[in-house]
Amino acid sequence: MGYHPSYRYSEVKSMAMNDSQNKKQQVLIMGGGIGGLCAALTLAELNIPVLLVEKSSAVGGILNQLDQQFPNDHCGICRMLPMVNREDGFQFCARRGIFQEKITVMTRTMVTSVSGTPGRFSASLEETFAGIDAEKCTLCGACMECCPVEVPDDFNAGLSCRKAVYQPVPFGINPSPVIDWGHCTQCGACVEACAEGAIFLEDKTRNFQIEGIAGMIYAGGVELTDPRDFDVYGFGVFPNVVTATGFERLLSSSGPFSGKPVRPSDGKPIGKIAWIQCVGSRNIMIGADFCSSACCM
Predict the structure, then answer these.
(1) Cα separation of 122 and 118, whole Å?
(2) Which of 40, 167, 287, 290 has the largest count of CB atoms under 10 Å?
(3) Which domains, and CATH codes, for the chain?
(4) pTM, 2 dp
């Protein structure tokens, strides 16, 4: 089964629920970050079908933005290895794809309501179309080149811009571009540029129901603090004040500066760095007296 960006309700229902070779009920996981992926892989190793839904256009969460991690400079994605059968190893690079037939991934999908009892849940889901047929797309990039709209790129923490049609994660599991309906002007330039006829400018959603859910896991992920809320550090005022995530993207080989330690303001080499930890955490004045546990990893 695995990952397919264009699965619809009928396909998910027939593959994930009516599998005559596996009569186990599936588990619904809400959230495709590192926690949700780890849970999905663990359940799949136990031969339990999983439907993994993620509201954004890509799975992987914040780890997609972290290029290298202490202490051995790996990307960190493979830290989501299953909690069972680890001794057998994991033969695939998890950043390149989820090669597990028990897992069905649906991006741009949200759970809107849940009903039922333990062992017999049902869930209502809403899927937003990407606007691009991933099966027809050849990744030529013509649509992104001709798009006249530019907005700050959240993936690069605002250090660069992207188009209204863009790749959410350049090296992600599904590399096909998607359309940002919030910024798309419906000008039609991308439709004309696409030789494969893979683009349709319809901001549509589809609501559907999933039955026969044995259990559910909520893996909500993290939400980054906006330092501008505190108005004391100069973030958003001085271009060389960046967040920790922004600094990660600045140093990343896949980032806007190709891994060179330069200042965003003028592109010159960084001379000195002042590092402020725990912005938004461990501060009773803002009602956050806790450690966020992941910021300084």
Answers:
(1) 10
(2) 40
(3) 9-129+204-218 (3.50.50.60), 142-193 (no CATH), 224-297 (no CATH)
(4) 0.82
